């Protein structure tokens, strides 16, 4: 049997996702209409013989997470549990800490998935590729091609062209190493814990030499990438499976819009029921659009491409929405125009107001370009980005909000451009 | 009586509109700027209008020939080969202006107000001297040349260019009346009437100032054009409210040509003029704008403080503001944002203009 682990991080992570991560844990932020990690879970449940999915992170138990667990278990008919680390243990420390839970029932292998990626998740292909080798002492990581410049922001893999063995691994190098990058999607066998365990032992030895150290915590904090993969490379144990399917990180809020576009575009294959259709009496739909069944959308509105409309959202007459995510309870009054933006939960946009951001899409002329999740500021100036309205923001009628980030519960009284509004 | 109207400037500050037609022919509140003046002159008893022209005169000539018939007056054009400034054109038209001894009007072509022509004649005859200029009060005199005159008679003492200490709040309103003898002072060469002729006349006690009542605006640049439009519409509200449009969807003072079509669920006004054959589609919001003949504003757009040039098309969900001026036959694609854009004629705009600039 098989299992899967999703590394969901914790509250201190995801700062580039503010102000949206104030309201909801980033892994639950809706991408193409469903929580980010539901895409992971769905992909896992499609793998035959998948018996359990574990979410590992360091969030305090919270209502949003519990509700998600309940509804996902109902939907996918598979046990899904949340395992909470006592502190941030890194991408390797968490699975090591909970190794007994993972190994109970004796899985043949288990997937480990970073929560903040979007992907086609070719898990079955990975499994086939792994089984072909027939060696339970080997592990597999999913790789994809990046351009030379952007590869430096990722974990870089040098692999043997024929055997696909990882010969060299380096996390975020400062000079070019390889165009093949780590997707944060792995297939491990139980043998992986011997290798993580070795790192743990070494950490503990080092800590014993130091005085007054709180040994446990520090020894258990282990990074898969730097501590484990780098050591496994060239040992005949770590292999790379290269995917040509779509893949992106979801670090900034802007990348959530991009990720939505990628998922929406595969809905025509896997979830046609989630794509809104043009029908008489309904709004005009251009391209791929997701509308939650409880949303109320006027028939004169024009939506799409790449729009996700959340639960209980109200869209008035003559409203235009393109390349945006409208979160639950928001209200877009008549004639508003929302482009390249995320409209927060329960926010209200007044008549004829314009809420617009600048897309941060990857260079469309470079097939290997990835989205840049750079920092908000460059040379002391806010870089033009998508516009984000936090939760419960009120935008008055007829103003324009351009390339701005509005923190939650603000009531604006005029136009703003290129600003962060506290 | 005769009147000479100075229409020979290039109108550079009202570009891009004046790249298509001469400034005097640009519609202000649905009527060519020049016609506002000519009609008022006719009312005051003027029967011969001389247009002092230099560039793009064919269009003007054609247009004014039509008006000649309608108004039942004589309109002649005085062509200058080189721009003669604001006084030189009088010398060029010397023969026409000195046919008899009656005083004549001289006007800048781009001021708008309640034209006080009959009052000017009365005032001028009353003081009996060579010239009268109309003055108007402004709030910030340091930006203009001001006129210092005697409070009760109006006799002008002197002119002060951009005064740094307050000497007067009255400025030249661009409307004059002169006796034919003024021509003895003017040579046939480029000359500025304000700088070279008036100071001498004032010194000799031959120039009087009549203070204008009510609104006044030099509409020679887009920002002031829109301000002047607001003033003109307010005066219409007081004098001829029946010419303004009212009803659901209209707010404040709005002038709509009868041939224009306005869609459902729009909110138009305050201070909007919509020209002939304009089509405003559904759900459009317009305030403080002039929309010129033949344009189309597509649904759900939002426009404030803009001039939309002839036969232009503004796409759906477009936002235009901050003195955006579209020249003739400009196309603005759907969903764009234009902030203070100045768009030359026959351009098609496919990208937003978030900060003020000129689109060549
Ligand atoms: N359970 C758990 N998950 C973690 C922890 N740290 C990171 N993660 C998750 O692991 C995934 C990868 O996170 P990182 O390694 O921080 O991110 P990265 O992809 O290297 O990108 P950077 O943030 O640029 O370093 C994300 O889904 C995180 O939520 C941790 O301490 N515990
Ligand atoms: N006939 C004639 N009229 C002139 C000449 N220069 C200016 N005018 C007119 O004098 C009036 C006042 O001039 P301005 O306000 O400077 O207007 P303008 O020169 O047309 O426009 P700008 O290029 O924006 O300065 C306007 O009615 C002009 O048409 C000239 O050389 N000859
Ligand atoms: Mg990392
Ligand atoms: Mg000039």
UniProtKB/TrEMBL annotation, chain A:
Protein family per UniProt: Belongs to the transferase hexapeptide repeat family.
Organism of this sequence: Eublepharis macularius
Name of this chain's protein: Mannose-1-phosphate guanyltransferase alpha
Segments forming domain Nucleotidyl transferase: 3-197
Domain Mannose-1-phosphate guanyltransferase C-terminal: 285-421
GO-annotated molecular function: transferase activity
InterPro entries: GMPPB_C, Hexapep_transf_CS, Mannose-1P_guanyltransferase, NTP_transferase_dom, Nucleotide-diphossugar_trans
Pfam families: GMPPB_C, NTP_transferase
UniProt gene name: GMPPA
From TrEMBL, chain B:
EC number(s) recorded for this UniProt protein: 2.7.7.13
Domain Nucleotidyl transferase: 2-234
GO molecular function: GTP binding; mannose-1-phosphate guanylyltransferase (GTP) activity
CDD domains in the cross-refs: M1P_guanylylT_B_like_N
InterPro entries: GMPPB_C, GMPPB_N, Hexapep_transf_CS, Mannose-1P_guanyltransferase, NTP_transferase_dom, Nucleotide-diphossugar_trans
Associated pathway: Nucleotide-sugar biosynthesis; GDP-alpha-D-mannose biosynthesis; GDP-alpha-D-mannose from alpha-D-mannose 1-phosphate (GTP route): step 1/1
Record has Transferase as a keyword: yes
EC class of the enzyme, as a word: transferase
Keyword GTP-binding found: yes
Pfam families referenced in this protein's UniProt entry, alphabetically: GMPPB_C (PF25087), NTP_transferase (PF00483)
Keywords of the record: GTP-binding, Nucleotide-binding, Nucleotidyltransferase, Transferase
Domain Mannose-1-phosphate guanyltransferase C-terminal: 251-359
Coiled coil location: none
Stored SUPFAM superfamilies: Nucleotide-diphospho-sugar transferases (SSF53448)
GO biological process per UniProt: GDP-mannose biosynthetic process
Family to which the UniProt record says this protein belongs: Belongs to the transferase hexapeptide repeat family.
Entries under PANTHER family matching the protein: SUGAR-1-PHOSPHATE GUANYL TRANSFERASE (PTHR22572)
Protein name: mannose-1-phosphate guanylyltransferase
Organism whose genome encodes this protein: Eublepharis macularius (Leopard gecko)
């Amino acid at each position: 049997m098989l299992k899967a682990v999703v590394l969901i991080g914790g509250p201190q992570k995801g700062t580039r996702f503010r102000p949206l991560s104030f309201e909801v844990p980033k892994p639950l932020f809706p991408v193409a209409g469903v929580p980010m990690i539901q895409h992971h879970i769905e992909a896992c449940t499609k793998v035959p013989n998948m018996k359990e999915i574990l979410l590992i992170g360091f969030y305090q138990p919270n209502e949003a997470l519990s509700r998600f667990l309940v509804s996902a278990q109902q939907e996918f008919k598979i046990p899904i549990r949340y395992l909470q680390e006592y502190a941030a243990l890194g991408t390797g420390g968490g699975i090591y800490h909970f190794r007994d839970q993972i190994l109970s029932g004796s899985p043949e292998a288990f997937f480990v998935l970073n929560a903040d990626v979007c992907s086609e998740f070719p898990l079955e292909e990975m499994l086939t590729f792994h089984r072909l080798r027939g060696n339970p002492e080997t592990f597999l990581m999913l790789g994809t091609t990046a351009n030379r410049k952007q590869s430096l922001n990722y974990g870089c893999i040098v692999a043997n062209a024929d055997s696909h063995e990882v010969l060299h691994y380096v996390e975020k190098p400062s000079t070019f190493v390889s165009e093949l990058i780590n997707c944060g999607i792995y297939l491990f066998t139980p043998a992986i814990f011997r290798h993580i365990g070795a790192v743990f032992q070494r950490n503990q030895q080092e800590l014993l030499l130091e005085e007054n150290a709180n040994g446990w915590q520090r020894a258990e904090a282990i990074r898969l990438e730097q501590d484990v993969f780098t050591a496994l490379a060239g040992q005949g144990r770590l292999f790379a499976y290269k995917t040509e399917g779509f893949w992106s990180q979801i670090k900034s809020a802007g990348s959530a819009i991009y990720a939505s576009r990628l998922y929406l575009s595969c809905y025509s294959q896997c979830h046609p029921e989630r794509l809104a259709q043009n029908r008489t009496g309904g709004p005009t739909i251009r391209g791929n659009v997701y509308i939650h069944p409880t949303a109320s959308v006027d028939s004169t509105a024009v939506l799409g491409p790449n729009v996700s409309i959340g639960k209980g959202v109200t869209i008035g007459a003559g409203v235009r929405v393109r390349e945006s995510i409208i979160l639950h309870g928001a209200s877009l009054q008549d004639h508003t125009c929302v482009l390249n933006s995320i409209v927060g939960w329960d926010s209200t946009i007044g008549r004829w107001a314009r809420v617009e951001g600048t897309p941060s899409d990857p260079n469309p002329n470079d097939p290997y370009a990835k989205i840049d999740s750079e920092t908000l500021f460059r040379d002391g100036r806010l870089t033009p980005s998508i516009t984000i309205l936090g939760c419960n923001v009120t935008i008055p009628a007829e103003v324009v909000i351009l390339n701005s980030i509005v923190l939650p519960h603000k009531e604006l009284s005029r136009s703003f451009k290129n600003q962060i509004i506290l | 009586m005769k009147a000479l109207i100075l229409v020979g400037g290039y109108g550079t500050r009202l570009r891009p509109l004046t790249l298509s037609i001469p400034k005097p022919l640009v519609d202000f509140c649905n009527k060519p700027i020049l016609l506002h003046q000519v009609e008022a002159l006719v009312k005051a008893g003027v029967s011969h209008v001389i247009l002092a022209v230099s560039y793009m005169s064919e269009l003007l000539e054609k247009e004014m020939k039509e008006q000649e018939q309608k108004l039942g007056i004589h309109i002649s054009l005085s062509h200058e080969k080189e721009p003669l400034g604001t006084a030189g054109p009088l010398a060029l038209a010397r023969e026409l202006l000195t046919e008899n001894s009656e005083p004549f009007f001289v006007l800048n072509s781009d001021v708008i107000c309640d034209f006080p022509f009959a009052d000017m004649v009365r005032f001028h005859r009353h003081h009996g001297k060579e010239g009268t200029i109309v003055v108007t009060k402004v709030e910030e005199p340091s930006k203009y040349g001001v006129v210092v005159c005697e409070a009760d008679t109006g006799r002008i003492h002197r002119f002060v260019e951009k005064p740094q200490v307050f000497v007067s709040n009255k400025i030249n309103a661009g409307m004059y009346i002169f006796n034919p003898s003024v021509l003895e002072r003017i040579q046939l060469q480029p000359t500025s009437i304000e700088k070279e002729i008036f100071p001498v006349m004032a010194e000799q006690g031959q120039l009087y100032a009549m203070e204008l009542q009510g609104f006044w605006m030099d509409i020679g640049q887009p920002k002031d054009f829109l301000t002047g439009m607001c003033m003109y519409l307010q005066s219409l509200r007081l004098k001829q409210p029946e010419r303004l449009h009212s009803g659901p969807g209209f707010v404040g003072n709005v002038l709509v040509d009868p041939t224009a079509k306005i869609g459902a669920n729009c909110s138009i006004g305050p201070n909007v003029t919509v020209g002939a054959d304009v089509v405003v589609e559904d759900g459009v919001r317009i305030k403080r704008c002039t929309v010129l003949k033949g344009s189309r504003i597509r649904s759900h757009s939002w426009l404030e403080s803009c001039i939309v040039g002839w036969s232009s098309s503004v796409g759906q969900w477009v936002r235009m503001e901050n003195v955006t001026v579209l020249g003739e036959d400009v196309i603005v694609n759907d969903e764009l944002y234009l902030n203070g854009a100045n768009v030359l004629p026959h351009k098609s705009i496919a990208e937003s203009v978030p900060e003020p600039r000129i689109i060549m």
